[in-house]
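does this look right to u?? zinc ion version
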Amino acid sequence: MKKIGELSKVTGCSVQTIRHYEKEHLIASAERSEGNFRLYDESAVERLLFIKHCRSLDLSLPEIRQLLALNRSPGSQCDDVNRMMDRHIEQVETRIQELTKLNEQLRMLRRSCTNRRTVEQCGILRNLSATSVSIG
Amino acid sequence: MKKIGELSKVTGCSVQTIRHYEKEHLIASAERSEGNFRLYDESAVERLLFIKHCRSLDLSLPEIRQLLALNRSPGSQCDDVNRMMDRHIEQVETRIQELTKLNEQLRMLRRSCTNRRTVEQCGILRNLSATSVSIG
DNA sequence: TATAAACTCTATAATAACAATAGAGTCAAC
DNA sequence: GTTGACTCTATTGTTATTATAGAGTTTATA
Ligand SMILES: [Zn+2]
Ligand SMILES: [Zn+2]
Ligand SMILES: [Zn+2]
Ligand SMILES: [Zn+2]
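got this back:
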């Protein structure tokens, strides 16, 4: 049985994060030692790695909770999982589009300054001050 | 002179947001009426639109504060503005790359489920459970 | 054995940029 | 004079952690 510090090392999740996941019911309340220290077995490692994998895909804690719940009822259909994934993918793609557009605007704005000028003449600030959002 | 509600309508910033910007010193403390209502003139409109424009480019409030400060000392060089913009652009591009990679992984993961299966056989959950982060 | 170092515990606050609410006060119209 | 729309301040919530504070536990060393 590992204490929380070792679990942290093994999984790469910080100690506070592990406690946080417990409070949020993503992992079960751990057994306690006589001195009230949390004790974990291998299943805790697996579960934490599952969560970490999900987080690396930007899935939210509620989404992960849902996946874990589905995982516990292995007989159910996986439509719910699919719907969630589809929604999540859509959000990510929307965000990519937003940022791409943003990036174009920022680069255009950046080109409007050629250094060696004073702020008074700075194209960046002038453009930002313009009431219209368009930059060209 | 406008009260905060009208300023909100004109600029498209919510009333709370305007108060928030005041607290964060992005806009000056407004004059007050006898009844202690905030009163704004046209310069407040301009400044709020400037801020809104910056926010639409995902510039942070501290970054905007910096731009506003530079705007007030028009004789200074604009190297600082440029450095900030460059850093900001870099961050946006990094985030785009991250999300693009994420999106590929999510789509791959999504393909591993073909519906009509039970959760037990679900490729998504199986892949998420795999210790390795790779999905293929 | 005493003590110090390293670890753990709970509870609370901070992060970013607001949104939402509570409870009270102001103002205009009817 | 009372309704309704508006405003005020102050507080809390949002997300997923991170960072404290202050106290207790365990392990290693002098
Ligand atoms: Zn999601
Ligand atoms: Zn410039
Ligand atoms: Zn930035
Ligand atoms: Zn499936």
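Chain A touches chain B through 52 residues (CB under 8 Å). idk if thats expected tbh
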